[in-house]
């Protein structure tokens, strides 16, 4: 490997990105560690029932400390880049607004699209790096016949993160490395041990970085109070699919499609949330058999393996991170809208989540479920 090539590594303070930095350093690259400071974990401490201290999660102060320690261990320069304002504008506020409108957002995808593979690439170029490497479990390759960069699924399917990366552009993929794409998590931890990284056994973070304990309702209360706002009144009616009112609810932000518990009504058979009508503040409930949909509309779409969807295409579609891709046909509706028709109806198609299209292991593209 030519030692003159400089790679910026997005270091989150976890074992994956730390191992990437150590791997590239050992391979002879000039490596620079970059950590994005995105959210002040002390900001809402103690407000509206929020914990006084937040530790041990993605992007926390503990993670910054761990990333800096790894950089010192392997002997690379390391910088923290503050993007708190951009993160709040492009990730936190849309997260809040989506929930208040009755949708279920994915902040990690927004963060990837607007910060990790946008702003971080800009910073990398400013310091003379040719590419950014991350600890995501995915692969990127250049396909000569099509002349396009491809995003493909990794070896370790249990860690597959391509669902969160569907928004990457050709330009971003051309400057991105995913060194862990051909490895399993146990192999990564073993490599971390070989490189003498103290965090080789560090647990993975499973939470949204700015929502302690996954309690988004408490976060909404605390965030709005800090902004000088109160939680808007989104209470309304619980209705059946045929329009019968069977109860009242305290706010549409308390519900998501597929939810069964916490509906506040007792009937002879279990009820599930089928739909949330944000404009009418209605939560539509019904039996589980009514929770299945054969079609969906994906908007704000991004295509990766193809430049344009000129005709219907058979693919497999994931409608949430842990969903097994289901056979379907996608076809263009207009410039920024794709109709997905599944071979078999899928459970709990949820507005605000992503629909990601796969052709085998290759990510064709994706969009946001309308």
Quick structural summary:
The protein has 370 residues and is of the alpha/beta class.
Strands in their spatial order, largest beta sheet: 12-15-14-13-16-17
Termini gap: 46 Å
Shape: globular
> What is the helical fraction, as a range of percent?
10-25%
Would you list the SSEs in sequence order as H and E? EHEHEHHHEEEHEHHEEEEEEEEEE
How many β strands by DSSP?
A: 17
Low-confidence segments, given as residue ranges, are none
Q: Which band does the percent of strand residues land in?
A: 25-35%
Specify the CATH homologous superfamily of the largest domain. HUPs
Major sheet: size, sense and barrel closure?
Answer: 6 strands, antiparallel, barrel
What is the level 1 CATH name of the largest domain?
Answer: Alpha Beta
- Find the CATH topology of the largest domain: Rossmann fold
Query: Mean of the pLDDT scores?
Result: 92
Which class best fits the helix and strand makeup?
A: alpha/beta
Q: List the total number of helices.
A: 8
Structural summary, described in words:
There is one protein chain. It is built from 8 helices and 17 strands. The protein is α/β, with parallel strands linked by helices and 370 residues long. It has 3 domains: 166 residues, HUPs (Rossmann fold); 54 residues, Adenine nucleotide alpha hydrolases-like domains (SH3 type barrels), CATH 2.30.30.280; 78 residues, Translation factors (Elongation Factor Tu (Ef-tu), domain 3), CATH 2.40.30.10. A 6-stranded antiparallel β-barrel has the order 12-15-14-13-16-17. Strands 3-2-1-4-7 form a 5-stranded parallel sheet, with helices on both faces. Strand 2, helix 2 and strand 3 form a beta-alpha-beta unit. It is globular, with a radius of gyration of 22 Å. The chain starts with 5 loop residues before the first strand and ends with a strand. The relative contact order is 0.13.
